Structures are given as C-alpha cells and as structure tokens.
Amino acid sequence: MLRSFISASLMTGLMLFAFAEIGTLEAKDPAPLKTFQKDQIPQSMQGLPLLFHENFQAGNSKHWELTDNTAWKIIKQGDNKAFSLTKKRSKYEPPVRSPYNRALLKNISVSDFIFDVKLQSTIPDYGHRDLCLFFGYQDNAHFYYVHLGKKTDDHANQIFIVNNKPRTKISTKTTPGTDWDDEWHHARVVRDTKTGSIKIYFDDMQEPIMTATDKTFLTGRVGIGSFDDTGNFDEILLFGKKVE
C-alpha cells in the first residue's frame, strides 16, 4: 500500500512538473506572426488607397527615420523578420515631455489616413507597459500619439497631443487598459480631418478602444515606437490622402 502511495505521489509530481514546463514554454515562445502573401496585401481601405506597405523581409529599415539608431534592429522570428525596438530608454531626449523611442516613416505626409500595424510588447509585465503609434507629426515638439498602456490613467492608455508643451490627454473615450501579453496584436489609427475624428482600434477592428476629436494638426507623418518600453513591429500598412 505504501509503495502504491509513493508511486501515485511521484506520478502526480511528474504530471505537475510537465504542465509547469508546458506553461513556461508557451510563455517564452509566442506564436509567430502570420504575414500577408504578396497577392493578399489590400490595395485600399475604406475608400483610401494604399500608400505604403512594410514587412521588413528585405532586412533593412531604410524607410524609417529613427530617434536613436542604436535602439532598433531587424530581428528574425522563424521565417519572418520584424523591426524591433530593443532599448527601454534611448539616447533621444525630447524637447518636451513625450515618448523617448520613435521611428517615423520617411517622405510621406497624409491628411485623412488609416495606419494599420501588427505589434508585440517584449517588456516584462507592469502597469505602464506600452507601445505607441504616432501621427500628425510636424516636428519633435508638435504631433499626436496614442499610448497603448497596460493600465489607464491621465498619462497612460490615452490619445495625446504634443503641442510645444508636455503631452496632453485629448481622449474622449478609452478603456481600463490595453490587455498586453507576449503575443502579436493588431492596432489601427483612423483619422478624418474634416470632422477632426481620431479612432484607435486594438485587435477588434469593429469597435474603437479610444476616440478623440482635434483639428490642431491636419496633416503630418506617421510612426511607431514606445514611451520607454521595448517591442516588435511588422506588417505596416498606410492608406490615405498623400500631402505633397
């Protein structure tokens, strides 16, 4: 009987260890991003033509202007390549309180647009875990951005304007927080300059998680990055009205 009890205890322990190992492997190995085949890339969205597509398979970042060249690199995940922000706090010091890590798309300014991005947070979990998308960029002291933060407060998980002073919340709607894990996610910014509407989507492309209305910057460039965290970006699409 004692032998049976010991055997059963050992078996239970081995099973628990195995389940723990499986959980650990799943946490360390998020599913790779499934990218578009060439014939799957949408050529328009909501009546706006495709202006730019980036999947980093060429292995370079020549289309991007970086605040800190040492903070970004191309990485491989299986057969896929992505653009990785590797430094929490880069060498860049903004002129006013605003994000430290940014990569701006070169040579394209838009008015109305849809900015569609796949993104993956790579920082250990904490309350302000974030990634950001930038738009309406004029210069380092004038632009909008959305902070996709783990927990919402006046400085996190909001739409912000930077207008020659520290970032100011302009969101009229948000959520309790962005549900970050280690997997890839899908984010989208939709801008209508006639009404001033800004809508932010995360995974669910039917219902915006954040909204704002503002007409301060009616044209500008778009970009990717973080306030002071790390993450990966891929499968970037920009649809819109190009401004010369």
Which helices and strands, and how do they pair?
Layout lengths: L1 H27 L15 E2 L2 E7 L9 E3 L5 E6 L2 E6 L15 E5 L3 E13 L8 E10 L2 E8 L9 E5 L4 E2 L15 E8 L4 E6 L7 E4 L7 E6 L4 E13 L1
Antiparallel strand pairs: 1-2, 2-16, 3-6, 4-5, 5-16, 6-15, 7-12, 7-16, 8-9, 8-15, 9-10, 10-11, 12-13, 13-14
Could you explain the architecture of this structure?
With 244 residues, the protein is mainly beta. The chain has two domains: 28 residues; 196 residues, Jelly Rolls, CATH 2.60.120. The chain contains one helix and 16 strands. The protein starts with a helix and ends with a strand.
Question: Characteristics of this structure?
Answer:
43% strand, nine-stranded antiparallel sheet, mainly beta, seven-stranded antiparallel sheet, 244 residues, 1 helix, globular
Summarize the structure.
The chain has 244 residues and is mainly beta. Helices cover 11% and strands 43% of the residues.
| Secondary-structure element pattern, one letter each | HEEEEEEEEEEEEEEEE
Question: What would the average pLDDT be, to the nearest integer?
Answer: 90
Instruction: Work out the count of structural domains.
Output: 2
Question: Runs with pLDDT <50, length 5+?
Answer: 4-27
CATH class call of the largest domain:
Mainly Beta
Compute the number of strand runs.
16
InterPro entries: ConA-like_dom_sf (IPR013320)
Organism: Gimesia alba
Protein name: Laminin G domain protein
Keywords: Signal
